[in-house]
Amino acid sequence: MTEAMRKEQGRDLSNVQLTAERRRGSRQQWLVLLGLASTLLLVALLSLVLGAISIPPAEMAAVLLGHGNPDYRAILLDYRLARVLIGALIGAGLSVAGTVIQTLLRNPLASPGTLGITAGAGLGAVMVALLLPASMAGMMSPAAMVGGAAVALAIYFIAYRGGIDPIRLALVGVAMGAFCSAGIDLILLRGSANLATALVWLTGSLWGRGWSELFGLLPWIGVLLPVVWRLALQLDLLQLGEAAAQGLGMRVAAIRLLLFCAVVGLAGASVSAAGTIGFVGLISPHMARLLVGGRHRILLPTAALCGSSLVLAADLCGRLLRPPLEIPAGLIISAVGAPFFIYLLWRVSRKRR
Amino acid sequence: MMMKASQRDGIPGRGSHRRLWTVVTACGLLLAVAILISLRYGSTTLSVRVLYDAIFHYTPSREQLILTTLRLPRVVVTVLVGANLGVAGALMQAITRNSLASPSVFGLNAGAAFAVVCMTMLLPGLSAAWRVYGAFAGALGTAVLVYALSHMIRWGKIELNMTLVGVTVQAFLAVGTQAMLIFNESKTEQLLFWLAGSVVGNRTYEASVLAIWSLPGLAAAAWLSRSVSVLGLGDELARGLGQRVRLLRGAALAVVVVLAGVSVSIAGPIGFVGLIVPHMARYILGLDYRRIIPASALLGALLLTLADIGSRWISFPGETPVGIVTALLGTPFFIYLARRRRTGQ
What we know:
The complex is a heterodimer.
Chain A: H1 3-49, H2 57-64, H3 70-104, H4 117-131, H5 140-159, H6 166-189, H7 195-203, H8 211-230, H9 232-239, H10 242-247, H11 252-274, H12 279-292, H13 296-320, H14 329-352
Chain B: H1 2-8, H2 16-40, H3 48-56, H4 62-96, H5 108-122, H6 130-152, H7 158-183, H8 185-195, H9 204-231, H10 235-240, H11 245-267, H12 272-285, H13 289-313, H14 322-340
């Protein structure tokens, strides 16, 4: 069977099943997407303007056009712009990773943490922060990336038994995650001068992130997001179950491996850039599903926009609440995202009753 | 192929009873040995003679006092907490029909941890004995909150809503805990030990409180185990088979809250046992909850007792929180079980 035929078949199936729903819903879905995009833009602009020093919008426009007050220029270009871009990218990366994992494992409780990526990355970072001398602090990000990827690969190979069974993959992932967390606790308990740094890293924060982190992050997100989006139809099929997907001519094992690697790249890069902001990857796929339904072609961009807006909004709040202090974005996301998610669940359930 | 797998994985057949008894006997023996080791070794090693005398000729000598006031309560706490968490996890996975569920998904651990951290930070004058009550109140409050919130959402499947709401509430509380730790660094280190889960320093009083709550809870779990198996088939089928699903789920949840709540309030949040031990039982004995629940109790108790022994040796003479050792010990064993399954095909 050729690639084209296989694609055609997938399309047919989704056509038959979803035409009615699609006609009714697609307009609304685009509206949701548009709304989210403008929210993201608004939050991004606000986080450029507001902060310990507020910059008037006119000045900001001047700086972006290439002239303007050099102080503002330094603040905007050296600090805020990179930070905002990083926030948007990791939000999108973690949310898309979460969406894909929830589909791959067919479990609503799954998130990048389920595959041990966050715990592995955390272990790598904490080892560098607390066991090595303080001069090595710059190595935290690379160590996190290596740790996350190594643990994820280990999980894949341990769970591989002539094929991948989603439940076994999830369970091995959780067990390995617990193993790594135990390692983290063990190191934290030894206590050290850097304890607070490590704790803040483990909560996730965008503090002090700049262009070098952005350029480390950009290739991963920039390449992997389109790859995953291209596989949206395959993700739809995987949701029907392995047997159905196989019956429709999909190479389940290969696609699954590809998606798994994409998730590891997305989540690993995001976590190593900003610490373990865990909750986004779990919650924004569900938010997106409540808003636009389960088709991945629209679900993935919606989840990405949700995640980006959440991370940026959380970072902004964290900077504004007690100005000289910064509250880690990871904390705010759960503190604000959790009630909002429950409200969303309740609201949608009332509408559909 | 599916049929074959399910048959071998223990839909009850005549042959598999022997397997159950083998497993139960083996676990029981190992547990007995582990308990003896746990009683004997520590910062002072007691002779077997002391153990024997403590039972038959009790005299308040120094060794016997160590045994009866320190070691014995600690072993009782360890065994019961292990059994409680294993059983609570198995029940939780059954009622949410999600293999990644555990008592902590229902926010029990997070609630207890939040309450304890709040108490330590905001009311520093309070004695440590209040910690047990605070933690239990926190766990109970969280469970009630999750239950109420998930019933407000009248859409989709109740077990899915419950898991989602539970995870969300848990994340919310975890943030509260973490924020307090970050902003009050001076007290962080003493709390980190409790937060990693520990059975150190429990005395007769804690052990008896634990026993009073857990033994009825465990009995109730055993009594519910048959109906809970049916729940695994889905709400509609279970209803069709004559189960009162709502009542059953409520009862099972109440048991989970009692078992996990009392455990977390005495030993701190130990996450691994509630999630992984039921799967160990499932890998060994199959899908029937009449087996999974007793096996989870035994395996949980065994794992936690072994971990407690290990926790005295990792950084001797200091102690490592048992929650950490549990994950370090349990993961390799779990991976062995997970890989062993279905090799025959």
